[in-house]
Amino acid sequence: MINMNRKDVLRSQIVPPTWYTVEVKGLSTKPAKSDGSTNFLYELVIAEGPYKDVPTKDFLINEKGIFGNGQAFFVACGFPKELMEKLRKGEEESVPIDEQAPVGKMIRAFIANTKWENRVSNEATDFLPLGDPIPTQAK
What we know:
The protein has one domain. The protein has three helices and five strands, in the order αβββααββ. It has a five-stranded antiparallel beta sheet with strand order 3-2-1-4-5. It is α+β, with helices and mostly antiparallel strands.
């Protein structure tokens, strides 16, 4: 017997691409298929408005490096912007990040409609701290 729940039904609801307030609901890990390194999968759920409770595709960060929107994700979750800038300038070599720290945070995420194997899903493609202004240009 197959069991379907509310989360399954909501996951199939495609939302219009725009900025949403999301909650980082959870974190799971699994080994990468390519080399066995650790993938961190953050569960994101729209937190308010007409699409409240609609989950997005899990946001993936690999232990080998935090590139692109992974940096924006951690800054949105409270990682100090000043420290990120010191890393960028080479004033710091590396800093530890608690992978559990984002769980429970409310942040802004741009949710795009992405396609994989002919299936459309809601995917977070950019992040902002909750208090930052939302950019006016289209993503």
